[in-house]
Amino acid sequence: MRSGRATPALAALLLVVAFLQGCGSNPPAPAAGSGDAAFRQLAGEVLEYTFKRDPSNATYLGIHRYDQLIADYSAAAIHADSAALKDFRTRLDGVDAQALSLDAQLDLEQTKHALDGMLLRNDVIRGWARDPDLYSSGITNDAFVMISRNFAPPEQRLSALIAREKLMPNALAEARRNLDDPPRVFTEIAIEQADGNRDFFADDVPAAFAAVQDPALLAEFETANRAVIAALEDYKKWLQSDLLPRSSGSFAYGAQTYSEVLAADEMITTPLAELLAVAQKDLTSNQRAFAEAARKIDPAKAPAQVLAEVAKDHPPASELLAVTQSNLDGLGRFVRDKQIVDIPPAPPARVVETPPFMRATTSASMDIPGPFEKVATEAYFNMTLPDPAWPAREQNEFMARWYRASISNVSVHEVWPGHYLQFLYAKDFPSDVRKVFGAASNFEGWAHYCEQMMLDEGLHADDPRYRLAQLQDALLRDVRFIVGIKMHTEGMTVEQAQEKFVADAYQPESVAESEAKRGTADATYGYYTMGKLMILKLREDYKSKLGADYTLKNFHDTFVKLGPLPMPLVRRAMLGETGTVF
């Protein structure tokens, strides 16, 4: 454990540990593990290595030692990375878990699984050899994290960005050397994103440093930035003329790799057939609930017709960001008034347009200061708008996803009490390990769980339009769960996945297309529903354990403060056992 005065999060964890030991539900771990100091030193080495291997993630986290660097995309560096990760993994296997406190035991398991996931992506999934967007959108992100918040004076950030930009053309050159028979859909996505990436460097990056007056610095930036734009333009031409015609590889993981990724990232070892049964059961349940909500709105129409009518009530694209911003204060008040969960003091989240390199596969996201950030406090709720160059009919179809009830549901997920709340607690997570590594089934599962929980607790006074929106998003996540498995292990095509999003999740064609494409690379994106179902199961088990002492707020506070551990580890921390997760 960390030395010095215990943080509120750590104090809460100690109370949980004391409770579990008092109940006799689990053999007590040493109160102060004799091996904790050595493990924490090793964990620190692992974390420092991950900052070096991914400088942009370090920048995002608030670690600024590597702001002048980007990841080394060369094949030699990737192979060396795998060797280093394996060495760390061997050293972690040598740690005596019985000599650790419970807190350190949880972090040991989390660190092992994080490295397992990195190794799978290097050596088995091999996105560096199969995904051309990894490079073009990757370097765009390298620049985006330098301008997304004011963690240093603009001159300092611009100087670091120039150093990064000088490395970017070589990253695209490495792409040409590394990419070998990628899936056609991956190359198509990279081409689709290419103009947005180029325009980001041409327009957004210079605008971010408009206040800089140093002529020499600006001249150096102009040269470096122009070289990146030219390299991106050449890369797009190469993608279209060279790589696309020979892009015939399969995106599918296969059953063994898929299961290994779930086990590494989420500690989920349930057989895939059982997971599909879980997903189908939840889909069927949510479809029944969706039909019931639709009947309450208009019993004379089919559910899809009711949704189409409800979806007509959306703001124009030009007002979406402002309308969403105005809704956030009300959500925060509801959370406080209903004692849902503690909200730490925080600046408001600003609603902004999604960055260009994320638009093809992301409709909404949260961009928060990293847990190690000392200066910047800006938090951004990104929302994707239609391309103004599209025909009016296409723009209107796109905006139908942002009907007013849907805006509320997404705001719950991204801000209150979803991701923004989680990130506000991140600075006080019990360890640095949990500030860096996290299970998607925990943090995405929590945000998805909140959508249902908030309505169950009375948000919008049981207005069926809001329940319809919540269930539409739940159905989307159910279909992700199903098609992720089926596309990667059972031969489902992208077109079949797209059809399923339309038919079973009531999604418009544009959303269905984006979702199906996302599933080719984000294979395990069923973690939303997986996590939600595991949290609901945990809540019931926790309620049974505490009996009369249980409160919803206590459950939520305890869960969030533990950090984004894989759900089996959360169960161990809160219940003293892993048990049945679903």
Considering the chains and any ligands shown, give keywords for the structure:
582 residues, mainly alpha, three-stranded mixed β-sheet, 2% strand, disordered N terminus
List the helices and strands and how they pair.
Blueprint: H1 8-23, H2 36-53, H3 55-61, H4 75-93, H5 102-125, H6 127-130, H7 133-147, H8 154-178, H9 184-208, H10 215-243, H11 255-266, H12 272-297, H13 303-311, H14 320-337, E1 350-353, E2 364-367, E3 380-383, H15 392-399, H16 404-414, H17 419-426, H18 432-436, H19 440-456, H20 464-489, H21 494-505, H22 509-521, H23 527-546, H24 552-561, H25 567-575
Parallel strand pairs: 1-3
Antiparallel strand pairs: 2-3
Helix pairs in contact: 2-3, 2-4, 3-7, 4-5, 5-11, 7-8, 7-9, 8-10, 9-10, 12-13, 12-20, 14-16, 16-19, 16-20, 19-20, 19-23, 20-21, 20-22, 20-23, 21-22, 23-25
The strand line-up of the biggest sheet is 1-3-2
**Mean of residue pLDDT values:** 93
Termini separation: 31 Å
What sort of overall outline do the alpha carbons produce when their principal axes are compared? globular
- Which ranges are low-confidence, i.e. pLDDT below 50, for 5 or more consecutive residues? 1-30
How many helical elements? 25
Helix content: 55-70%
